[in-house]
Amino acid sequence: MGLLNFCRKVDAPTGVTPQLEAFLDGYSIEVMPRTAEKVEDFTTLLPKGTRVYVAHIEGTPIEDMVATAKRLANDGYPVMPHFPARIIKDSAMLENWIAMYQGEAGVDQALLLAGGVTKPHGDFDSSMQLLENGAFDRAGFKRLHVAGHPEGNRDIDPKGGTAMVDEALRWKQTFSETTDADMALATQFAFEAGPIIEWADSLKAAGITIPIHIGIAGPAKLQTMIKFAIACGVGPSLKVLQKRAKDVTKLLLPFEPTQVLTELAAHKAANPDSNIEKVHFFPLGGIKTNATWAIEHGGSSAAPMTPS
């Protein structure tokens, strides 16, 4: 399927609802340098204008990150690289990374997060410290996303609950109100719509109005999905996978996000003012597999709007 196919209306696949098609409009997806290398041509897979996050795993050279960002930018995709606070040693390294991304790939947006390491490598411990630093503002970045955790985060709240996570969100809400930054919460993936909706509603009730780009795990073998879910600290919704895993005949079959996305799409259609605004895919079963699933479920049946 060529790039032009993304720019015209095509017949929706069987089973695709207008609600799901609308909900997938303008979705984003995450890649890493090693996974991006396996894709010959992104323009045959992703709609024009798709925001592509470039995930930074500890040990990945910044040069590889920037090269991936440059390739995607040259293909016409807005690129949002990760900036993991705990592996950035100091302000000089932060400013150097920003300069490299801007100089090579014209990047003007970023996902700021604490990062997956326990002990900071230097001066930064959290995304809030990166925001306070002011380097992104000085560099003229237009959009800054931060992490959201629908099922809590044991790294932040090791004893359970969401007290520290909630405090951090209140701080980020104030930051969004007192600066010119366009912000969104890009969340960890989960497998049940109900708890996601309850979490989003609770944020809105607490005055947290930062738009939510809800994390969704793309299609993958059930064994692969369970492995990533445990490693990433997915909470109670992991039981959805565990229940399916009891049927050994399904262990090697792909687990698809159809149900959770259909339910979230129906909620969004019934509640258009919901703070759940976009879908962000984690392509756990591969970029091509995820992109193909999105195509088959209405994610490319119309030219997407500019990502928000």
TrEMBL record:
InterPro entries: FAD-linked_oxidoreductase-like. GO terms for molecular function: oxidoreductase activity. Keywords: Oxidoreductase. The keyword Oxidoreductase applies. Gene3D superfamilies: 3.20.20.220. This is 5,10-methylenetetrahydrofolate reductase. It comes from Octadecabacter antarcticus 307.
